[in-house]
Write the structure tokens for this entry.
Amino acid sequence: MALTAHRHLIWDWNGTLLDDLDLSVDVMNTLLARRGLPRLDRARYHALFDFPVRTYYGRLGFDPVIDGFDRLSVEFISGYDARRLESSLHRGAVGVLTAAAGAGLRQSILSAYRHETLHEIVAHFGLTAHFDHIAGLDNISAHSKVALGHALVRRLAVPPAEILLVGDTLHDLEVAHELGVDCALIASGHHPASRLQATGARVYPDLAAFAAAHGLQGRSDSGGGKI
Ligand SMILES: [Mg+2]
């Protein structure tokens, strides 16, 4: 894998650094059960999950006449937030963040999660100091990270070609394209390797594989500040 000159990593949070797939499936199953709709398992979730979430909600069988999508979003986020600390970081998350910092890279988070809650959970895991910026949405409808991403890239003052966005979904790839930044996808989150690989994007099975491909295992003494 040829390494390009990336100086800043923009991380997605849910599914990329945080391993919240099972929690997301479980919380959505409570919404489905309340309405007598078919349950999700990991495979069905992987097949159906999408942004915008209204597309995903439609695929799950919710009736938009009975359940407005905004109301479903509120119900899901409420259930998720109540249990958010049940999730753990993905294996290797702290190691790759630490190694990237050691290699001189700057790092930020760009997330569709609500801004205040995002800050709180990143702090809960002791990761705040790793990031120059922690950018979440200011509403809970998770429309898109594109506008938020443009604002973040402007604040970074780093050429887009020197930024690598690391995410776990097709939406992260769309965001990267919109921002004009490079993208790496990790297939241990909310979308399966098959859907990610179909885009032709660079896909890694997990954070360890991403770290290995970019020389971000353990201590790094490259010192150049680029990967
Ligand atoms: Mg994600």
